[in-house]
Amino acid sequence: MKRFFLAALAFGCVLSAKAQDDFKRTTKGTIYKIVKANAGEKIKLDQVITFNMVQKTDKDSVLMSSYTVGRPFQARIQAEGDLMDVFTLLADKDSAVVKVPSDTIFKDNEDKRPPFFPKGSSLMMYIKIEKVQSLDEAMAERNKVLEAERAAMAKLGEEETGKMAGYIADNKLVLKTTPSGLKYAITQASTKRKPLPGDTVYVNYLGRTLDGKVFDTSLEAEAAKAGIKQEGRPYEPISFTLGAHEVIPGWDEGLQLLNEGSKATFIIPSKLAYAERGAGADIAPYSTLRFDVELVKVAPAKRAAVKKPVAKKTVAKKTTATSTIKKTTTPAAKKAPAKKQ
């Protein structure tokens, strides 16, 4: 990083010394100067460029540098934009400076003009082209990088299960497992109320990775013991609304299994914690975490009383009993006509 920073300063100083005069304007009015030009083919529309850039005030104060960020920028060359207008004048390994008057930048936003950009000043952008690719080449390269990243992540995911099993065996933990994969053991039982989603819970905790690194705790003594005590931080139970996604899923699920006053150990797989993202310097992607927690207090949420349904009065209707077998009436037999004498 130091090498990049020094390179950025050297690059910026050389350009600054050469870029005080001989500026030109593109057909769209962009002010620029080519500091180093190569004989290569000029950049074309739809090509993808990789470039480093340093932004400065015209008093030489550095505002931003891709060198200090640690990686160059990439851009697909489009038809619009001040820089795009200049990029098409450059070739691979060329360098240039673009000058943008601050009066143009803050034309309709004078109230947002910072003190280091007084009227009449300019933003100076020093550009170095590092690579020029076709869109297909850039996409193929990007896909290759993504594929490597996915493979690395998949390997970490596969290793997580083995590490978790080994940790549980080595520490002789006897745990229950929920359908989601959360593993837990209640280490101090209680018969008080259990929290419901929407309740506010107060929890003391000690969190660590499976290699034993304590990354956070609400207990001052434990923080001091682990060397992570923060001056001015109040060490007290953390409070949050259960089930409101204010904490990792493993906590939202696990605390509903506990009674107020109970303690437990949670072994939380990464899919119920920080997954492939990780968190900070201590929690790597696909990290199973251990939390020793105490549900100190449950503050029930105000819930509307459930009204019992009022029983409807039924009025008995008079009914006529009928047989399930239909009665049939035989029609009266017609009298035979009298015989004529």
Automatic annotation (TrEMBL):
A Gene Ontology molecular function term of the record: peptidyl-prolyl cis-trans isomerase activity
* Gene3D superfamilies to which the protein is assigned, alphabetical: 3.10.50.40
Q: Which Pfam families match?
A: FKBP_C
Q: Which reaction does it catalyse?
A: [protein]-peptidylproline (omega=180) = [protein]-peptidylproline (omega=0)
Q: What EC number(s) is this enzyme filed under?
A: 5.2.1.8
The alphabetized UniProt keywords are:
Isomerase, Rotamase, Signal
Q: Where is this region: Disordered?
A: 313-341
Q: In the record, which residues are listed under signal peptide? A: 1-19
Q: Does the keyword Cell division apply?
A: no
Ranges annotated as biased composition (Low complexity): 317-335
Q: What is the top-level taxon of the source organism?
A: Bacteria
Q: Which residues form the PPIase FKBP-type domain?
A: 198-299
Q: Which PANTHER family match?
A: FKBP-TYPE PEPTIDYL-PROLYL CIS-TRANS ISOMERASE FKPA, FKBP-TYPE PEPTIDYL-PROLYL CIS-TRANS ISOMERASE FKPA-RELATED
Family to which this protein belongs: Belongs to the FKBP-type PPIase family.
- State what protein this is by name: peptidylprolyl isomerase
Q: Which organism is it from?
A: Mucilaginibacter auburnensis
